[in-house]
User: Which sequence fits this backbone?
């Protein structure tokens, strides 16, 4: 059997129905094999390899299976790397397949820079941003290499694997029907989930003001429903990291929004004033904790559940208990134990609700936040939502009202502009449901060519452009720290934008300019592509935001004294209440 045929059959056996790629000389055999099996697997052509990788990331997030993207050698392979990094930093399982020049054309140990045309050592480049990257040099090694790549990508703490395959290996033979070879990841030294769950339950029940911090690991491990049941049972306030906003719907009774640099004031206040934080699948990076980790939840005991020992090495607090265990094992144990116990955190819940009510008055809504709320109200209940990176992303995280079946996908750790549209393509194909891409006038131009993918495949993707004719987030920084010198960020200093609606029409996508709510709902509700432009003032802001070297609950602008006083009074009343027997003892 030809190697490229075997590879396609391998993907089909593992229920990967869609792959993303761009043609090139070194992957022509793979392209031909994908076409041969086109009734069982679809090769989706993007118009830039970066977009292929990002679409594969979104496909993986929606399906829970490794996303697959391919590219040719040299520039095709290097163009993948931004999307590879997105998968790595956000723990998304992906297999990236790159073509390479024939083995007999490679430079080997020669000191020349390059021997074969477009020969590039993509393996060395990809190693720092993959779980594994290697070249397969013999046809007979392909079955084991594929099994290894799949197992590593989908294994403990998922992530990307890159396979570099020379052209002569693609066209080689592996035998008629070689058996699948077994590859086993090393089993991590995790703790007993029964032991972990018992200890966590005991500590939680003794707390007076506990908080659950839900991370993106919950969605990646497929445990969102189990987590929701656990949260319903313990009745503890829940805050999330930014890229985990879809773990709970907005109307969940114990949901208090996102924490961190651009988090809601009440979520940051609640976690800062808690006495116990149960962190589930969140890496607690500095955008969540603030740069000075000692100021994060200083009075709380942190119970940290994660599967990655490397993340545990980044301790946040001296009062930190670590539980290295997979969420898919420990969350059912926690939920089962929670169901058998009485819980009473009603006084703390009432305090948190009162605090949120007061802090919601602190900031005047920004135009971007108001637009996100308007779009959220008009969006279909089962839509997939993607964003680019910049102010549009943060406004969405702050103000999108997540419904029960919606998913919201971000480029989190890598923060790659250009992510929104390719991710919407991958999400719409994976979910077979409409996707809404919220983007900015900077990010859209990074991968604007993917409008052609949307049109060619008639995908129900709605591109919503927030257009302020500026690179808004950097523009804001320049206003704050560079005395308003807006170099390279607005239309009279080097950054200009085209007529986006005309471009959308040129691609064959209907365009609308700032539609009224009724028209917006109609545009978002049908199955056809649409481009919707929402104008904004050139100077736009994200508020509140983290103050330099301050704890996360002391955001800028500073709270008005009357609101700050009332909030502290609410918290002090909770702390000093006489009836302390209303606990879980």
Assistant:
């Amino acid at each position: 059997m030809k190697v490229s045929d075997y590879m396609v059959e391998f993907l089909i056996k593992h229920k990967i129905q869609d792959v993303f790629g761009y043609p090139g000389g070194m992957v022509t055999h793979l392209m031909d094999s994908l076409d041969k099996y086109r009734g069982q697997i679809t090769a989706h052509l993007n118009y830039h390899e970066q977009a292929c990788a990002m679409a594969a990331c979104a496909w993986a997030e929606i399906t829970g299976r490794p996303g697959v993207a391919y590219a040719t050698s040299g520039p095709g392979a290097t163009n993948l790397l931004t999307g590879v990094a997105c998968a790595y930093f956000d723990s998304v399982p992906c297999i990236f397949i790159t073509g390479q020049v024939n083995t007999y054309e490679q430079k080997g140990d020669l000191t020349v820079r390059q021997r074969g045309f477009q020969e590039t050592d993509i393996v060395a480049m990809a190693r720092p941003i993959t779980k594994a990257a290697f070249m397969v040099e013999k046809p007979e090694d392909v079955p084991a290499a594929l099994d290894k790549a799949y197992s590593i990508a989908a294994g403990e703490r998922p992530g990307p694997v890159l396979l570099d395959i020379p052209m002569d290996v693609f066209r080689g033979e592996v035998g008629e029907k070689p058996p699948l070879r077994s590859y086993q990841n090393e089993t991590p030294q995790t703790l007993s989930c029964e032991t972990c769950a018992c200890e966590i339950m005991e500590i939680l029940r003794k707390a007076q003001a506990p908080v659950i911090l839900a991370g993106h690991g919950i969605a990646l491990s497929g445990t969102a429903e189990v987590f929701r049941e656990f949260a319903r049972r313990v009745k503890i306030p829940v805050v999330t990291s930014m890229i985990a906003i879809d773990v709970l719907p907005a109307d969940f009774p114990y949901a208090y929004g996102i924490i961190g640099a651009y988090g809601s004031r009440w979520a940051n206040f609640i976690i800062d004033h808690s006495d116990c934080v149960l962190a589930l699948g969140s890496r607690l990076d500095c955008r969540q904790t603030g740069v000075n980790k000692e100021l994060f939840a200083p009075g709380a005991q942190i119970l940290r559940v994660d599967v990655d020992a490397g993340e545990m090495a980044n301790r946040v607090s001296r009062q930190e208990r670590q539980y290295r265990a997979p969420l898919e094992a420990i969350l059912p144990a926690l939920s089962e134990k929670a169901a058998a116990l009485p819980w009473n955190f009603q006084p703390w819940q009432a305090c948190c609700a009162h605090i949120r009510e007061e802090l919601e008055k602190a900031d005047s809504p920004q135009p971007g936040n108001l637009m996100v709320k308007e779009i959220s109200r008009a969006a279909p209940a089962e839509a997939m939502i993607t964003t680019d990176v910049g102010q549009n992303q943060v406004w969405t995280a702050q103000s999108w009202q997540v419904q029960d079946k919606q998913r919201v996908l971000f480029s989190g750790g890598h923060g790659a502009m250009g992510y929104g549209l390719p991710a919407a393509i991958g999400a719409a194909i994976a979910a077979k449901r409409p996707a809404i891409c919220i983007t900015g006038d900077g990010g859209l131009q990074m991968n604007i060519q993917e409008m052609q993918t949307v049109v060619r495949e008639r995908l129900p993707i709605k591109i919503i452009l927030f257009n302020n004719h500026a690179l808004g987030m950097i523009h804001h920084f320049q206003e704050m720290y560079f005395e308003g010198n807006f170099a390279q960020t607005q239309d009279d200093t080097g950054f200009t934008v085209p007529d986006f609606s005309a471009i959308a029409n040129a691609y064959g996508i209907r365009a609308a300019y700032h539609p009224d709510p009724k028209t917006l709902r109609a545009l978002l509700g049908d199955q056809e592509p649409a481009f919707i432009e929402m104008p904004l003032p050139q100077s736009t802001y994200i508020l509140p935001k983290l103050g330099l070297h301050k704890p996360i609950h002391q955001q800028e602008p500073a709270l008005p004294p009357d609101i700050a006083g009332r909030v502290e009074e609410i918290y002090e009343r909770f702390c000093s209440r006489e009836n302390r027997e209303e606990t879980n003892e």
Q: What stands out?
A: The longest helix spans residues 561-576. The chain is about 40% helix and 15% strand.
